[in-house]
Write a structure and sequence with these properties.
Blueprint (H helix, E strand, L loop, with lengths): L5 E2 H8 L3 H11 L13 E2 L1 H15 L4 H13 L1 H4 L11 H11 L3 H15 L1 H23 L3 H17 L13 E5 L7 H11 L5 E5 L4 H11 L3 E5 L9 H7 L6 E5 L12 E4 L2 H13 L4
Parallel strand pairs: 3-4, 3-5, 5-6, 6-7
Antiparallel strand pairs: 1-2
Helix pairs in contact: 1-2, 3-4, 3-8, 6-7, 6-8, 7-8, 7-9, 8-9, 9-10, 10-13, 11-12
């Protein structure tokens, strides 16, 4: 008896993403239906859906779409090899591997020391991209496959948050007279990358206001009216939280403000013309600085 299969729309509802997101994941990462189907409509079998659920869980733990897709494909292809693995960070820096070992050992002082060393050596963005994110992705994969390492992820998140706050200088007069407003999309609770962005901006003497996770649209519009920011950066980690309608609330305020959609949750969202999409945090810092104070020379 053939296994039951689901159309694209049903899988999208199950995962809480748009059908266009599934088609993008299929085209970019090969996470589409693997079985042959007749006619124009492709259908997802149980194994196809399981791969997508692994990707969704890895995204929720902070992986980029490419990292999450790689894990989902690898975990599904080699479950016996991945299940017993500790938090491993192959092909990454010595600091990243050390951070993975320290986090797995619940060695809080060791985690803080390695984070401080990475920030001191290469800055907050490189620390995030080359050291923290690979470890978070490895932890996410471990959790997605076996349910283990939740406590490791919590410890690591708290340590990274503390390190990024400590690395954020207190500014006197900022170079930008009007601040950059940083917040997460409504229902998006993955705010850690915003603290990395705030630290990087502050190190360039660009002032910002942090409103954190899951800011309701009404509260965002009120904040824009009250603080008159030069720019609003809205972070979305997951596609289901990247709803472009939230930008309409800001566009309806009297202030002239530049709008940015930052994070992998906006990757496939049809953003309004006045909203600029930001992908990598390093590029985001450059583009935000150029908008609010002018390009660096």
């Amino acid at each position: 008896m053939p296994e039951p299969s689901l159309p694209v729309a049903a899988v999208a509802r199950r995962l809480g993403v748009a059908p266009s997101t599934l088609r993008t994941w299929d085209r970019r990462y090969g996470l589409g239906p693997r079985g042959r189907t007749t006619g124009r409509h492709r259908r997802y079998g149980p194994e196809d859906v399981a791969r997508l659920e692994l990707m969704q869980r890895a995204l929720l733990r902070g992986a980029s779409p490419a990292e999450a897709a790689e894990y989902a494909l690898r975990a599904h292809a080699e479950p016996d090899k991945l299940a017993p693995q500790p938090v491993a960070v192959p092909d990454e820096s010595t600091l990243a591997r050390g951070l993975g070992r320290a986090a797995l050992a619940m060695d809080t002082p060791g985690v803080h020391r390695l984070l401080d060393e990475a920030i001191e050596t290469d800055g907050v963005i490189a620390c995030w991209d080359r050291v923290v994110r690979p470890v978070l992705t490895a932890v996410a994969g471990r959790w997605a496959h076996s349910g283990a390492c939740v406590e490791v992820e919590h410890l690591l998140n708290e340590c990274v948050l503390a390190a990024m706050i400590a690395a954020t200088p207190l500014l006197g007069p900022a170079r930008n007279p009007r601040p950059v407003l940083l917040c997460c999309a409504p229902e998006e609770r993955h705010s850690l990358p915003l603290y990395v962005l705030r630290a990087a901006l502050a190190r360039r003497e660009v002032g910002s206001q942090m409103l954190g996770a899951a800011l309701p649209a009404d509260a965002l519009a009120a904040a824009v009216r009250r603080s008159a920011p030069a720019a609003v950066v809205l972070w979305a980690q997951l596609p289901r939280h990247g709803d472009p309608a939230v930008f309409e609330r800001v566009s309806g305020t009297p202030q002239r403000v530049r709008l940015f959609g930052c994070g992998p949750g906006w990757a496939t969202a049809p953003l309004p013309d006045q909203v600029q999409r930001l992908d990598a945090l390093a590029d985001a810092v450059d583009q935000i600085e150029a908008v609010v104070v002018g390009a660096r020379t």
